[in-house]
């Protein structure tokens, strides 16, 4: 943290609306730089007894997220409660398993509990004397001209007005701060839903808190038009998520009774059902979540800046939503290092110019990976292609990084990763017709083709 | 109109929100089919003395619009006050002119005054005994469950509630009806602005109402990053529109004083300036309009359907905004013919399924044509390519229709036209390197290439 203490504290107070994952991390970054930070959050304090988590979902932390956590010195702390997942394990309709490593030896994504991570970041933020957290503060509106937040205090039910000099909107996909920006002239905005919803379910821990599936893996039940996934928890259970069409012959609309659910799950997820004793109860009591991509521009307005889901909500299929939001914090911190802690207009402008194309690319990648996860990972040809790609990558070190690795295990800007990935996909499409088995890769004619493609890049 | 009288009148009253071009034409269609129609319009009656037109803009009516007008028997009537424009006339920075025909001999788009057309359609709608028009009725909100419109009466300033059984939202790009749909679950919505605004200006009539530029043409001053166009009026004047960046070295922001405007126009539009005596006054008193593309889905909700700009506002560069809205009316009428006047749920579902991909394609085409109009039409190579395309089209009748003609002079669905146009563009990109002048088209090697391309299609 030596770098921070060399920056002279700025007296100007900063306001953060939203104390979720991105808001709490951002507050920590800003406070460590010496800024007084005022944080408002709509929900109650998640660290209080009796707080009901909105979502108990697990998240997959990867390199971009870790770097952001390292920047405020909390990565080691979080790593202790994360479970490394080194591979995907695919479950077919007969319960047969196939696995595919995510990266090279030792590379993993980490299953982390959202609530735990959020509470830890709030503790750390609050430990900074210049951070003031206020919960139960719903943003009813913003007067962008007067620089005032209109808030409703949940405890007193009183409306109050808070002035701000600089406002960071980290209030998520349905951001009230963005809502104010959307009312300004010529505001580009888009919200697009998948025709799929999701339902959270549970695979229980075995006797003595044992994991009933391979612990260090992300489990996928790919079924073409839909899928279920499971991520491990520390207590031996797994959080499952079913991604499923709203309408159609196999859909939420088609499963109306416990008998429907039991019959359907028994048929398509036969190895999982015995591990899910609360299946029907959870299916009918847990809400069905929707899957939205939100894009907007600009992200800034005078002294207001959006970060995280507020400016770029994406679907969860690449496990990059939180990582992208955390990377926003790292990038903002870098810009503060470069420009100094008072050059806000230049920093806000450069932040949106730099981040917008990258989060747009990430939004596309997330939808692309939905098709991969629900369909392609069940195809032996696809898994063979992944193996061949790994061989090319090993044969040409530094010259070929698989797309998944670029997104997950690198800090290459998302847009660059996506462009490189599309080029590599085109090459694989030309190579694969010549390859029927892993060993074919070493055949001279295949090697000649690979060499030719690599020379042409 | 024989077809209409054979349909037995339905007693169910229909509600139309918005009496602009599409709303008034739709009301006419519905009334002629025997439906009682209740029409609400936010603005005052444009036929009343003292009504101030919001926009005096001219529109380019083309085949899709004409067919829709023919469907209610008003095409001949409108054609008398339209001015055919057979070609584009490009004005370069030295006042030199080049022209390019829009289609084959006799094919034209028609300059029509928006206000005149709207008033005429309102007259015709009102002449139907089962149509009831009410002006000054602002839609404040809609209760989709109770099927109620909340309106504010401009004259009395009283709010009132009107029930509806079937509601058609034809209230334009900033539709209040769409606003209600946007609040429903999982609503796809996008608004995207160009970084360009537009300003309406006037080229005055000459002595005795003479046209000071070629009357039967659409005039374009293409300047790479911006452009001005002019469409003829019956009184000898032209309506000009400058499409211009908001920001930058040549932009609205850069022209702050009358002297700035005179210097800029004198330099870049030297032949037009002498014909625009009110230039500086108009430049600073006329508003700067913005250019938005709006997409949304679904277009229907239970008994509500959006049509026209309310569901698919596009930028004006292909002259298809009104034509697409009018085509909505023709398509809805065809579906009523096919399914009968009571099968509304099926008709609404088919309408949006059929129209959505087409208006999405039209939105893309309109942006594509912006680049063509402001930049490519000034390029001699581009004009040569258009001539060669016309020759191919003549040589292979029925097998090659230029994209512009498919959009403007045909009823081919927009999405099909766009796909065919992209294929043809790719062919032209391969042919043009072999062609330096119009005569090259007849060279045997070029003819062989053309034959080969046509055989491969």
UniProtKB/TrEMBL annotation, chains A, B:
Transmembrane intervals: none
Any one GO MF annotation of this record: monooxygenase activity
Similarity comment: Belongs to the aromatic-ring hydroxylase family. KMO subfamily.
Pathway: Cofactor biosynthesis; NAD(+) biosynthesis; quinolinate from L-kynurenine: step 1/3
Protein name per the record: Kynurenine 3-monooxygenase
Gene3D superfamilies listed in its UniProt record: FAD/NAD(P)-binding domain (3.50.50.60)
KW Coiled coil (keyword) present: no
KW Oxidoreductase (keyword) present: yes
InterPro entries associated with the record: FAD-bd (IPR002938), FAD/NAD-bd_sf (IPR036188), Kynurenine_monooxygenase (IPR027545)
PANTHER family, sorted: KYNURENINE 3-MONOOXYGENASE (PTHR46028:SF2)
Catalytic activity: L-kynurenine + NADPH + O2 + H(+) = 3-hydroxy-L-kynurenine + NADP(+) + H2O
Enzyme Commission designation: 1.14.13.9
Cofactor(s) in the UniProt record: FAD
SUPFAM superfamilies, alphabetized: FAD/NAD(P)-binding domain (SSF51905)
Protein's job: Catalyzes the hydroxylation of L-kynurenine (L-Kyn) to form 3-hydroxy-L-kynurenine (L-3OHKyn). Required for synthesis of quinolinic acid.
Keywords: FAD, Flavoprotein, Monooxygenase, NADP, Oxidoreductase, Pyridine nucleotide biosynthesis
Domain FAD-binding: 16-182, 296-364
Domain of life, source organism: Bacteria
């Amino acid at each position: 943290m030596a770098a921070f203490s060399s920056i002279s504290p700025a007296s100007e107070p900063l306001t953060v609306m939203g104390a979720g994952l991105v808001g709490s991390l951002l507050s920590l970054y800003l406070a460590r730089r010496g800024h007084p930070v005022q944080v408002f959050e709509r929900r109650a304090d998640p660290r209080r007894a009796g707080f009901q988590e909105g979502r108990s979902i697990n998240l997959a932390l990867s390199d971009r997220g870790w770097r952001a956590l390292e920047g405020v010195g909390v990565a080691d702390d979080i790593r202790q409660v994360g479970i490394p997942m080194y591979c995907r394990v695919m479950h077919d309709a007969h319960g047969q398993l196939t696995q595919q490593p995510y990266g090279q030896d030792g590379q993993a994504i980490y299953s982390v509990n959202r609530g735990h991570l959020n509470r830890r970041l709030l503790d750390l933020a609050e430990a900074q004397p210049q951070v003031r957290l206020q919960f139960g503060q719903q943003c009813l509106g913003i007067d962008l001209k007067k620089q005032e937040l209109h808030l409703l205090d949940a405890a007193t039910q009183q409306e109050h007005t808070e002035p701000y000099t600089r406002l960071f909107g980290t209030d998520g996909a349905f951001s009230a701060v963005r809502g104010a920006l959307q009312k300004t002239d010529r505001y580009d905005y888009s919200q697009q839903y998948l025709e799929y919803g999701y339902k959270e379910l549970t695979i229980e821990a075995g006797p003595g808190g044992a994991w009933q599936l391979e612990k260090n893996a992300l489990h996928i039940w790919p079924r073409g038009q839909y899928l279920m996934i499971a991520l491990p928890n520390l207590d031996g259970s797994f959080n499952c998520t079913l991604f499923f069409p709203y309408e159609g012959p196999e859909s939420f609309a088609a499963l109306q009774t416990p008998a429907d659910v039991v019959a359907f799950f028994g048929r398509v997820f036969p190895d999982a059902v015995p591990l899910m004793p609360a299946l029907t109860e959870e299916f009918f009591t847990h809400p069905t979540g929707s899957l939205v991509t939100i894009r907007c521009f600009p992200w800034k307005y005078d002294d207001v800046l959006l970060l995280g889901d507020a400016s770029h909500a994406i679907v969860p299929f690449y496990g990059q939503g939180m990582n992208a939001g955390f990377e926003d914090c790292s990038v903002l911190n870098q810009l503060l290092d470069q420009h100094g802690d008072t050059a806000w207009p230049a920093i806000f402008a450069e932040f949106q110019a730099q981040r917008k194309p990258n989060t747009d690319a990430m939004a596309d990648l997330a939808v692309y990976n939905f098709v991969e996860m629900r369909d392609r990972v069940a195809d032996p040809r696809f898994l063979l292609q992944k193996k061949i790609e790994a061989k090319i990558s090993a044969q040409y070190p530094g010259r070929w990084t698989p797309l998944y690795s670029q997104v997950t295990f690198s800090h290459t800007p998302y847009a660059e990763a996506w462009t490189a990935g599309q080029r590599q996909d085109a090459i694989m499409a030309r190579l694969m017709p010549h390859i029927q088995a892993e060993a074919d890769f070493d055949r001279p004619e295949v090697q000649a083709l690979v060499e030719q493609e690599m020379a042409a890049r």
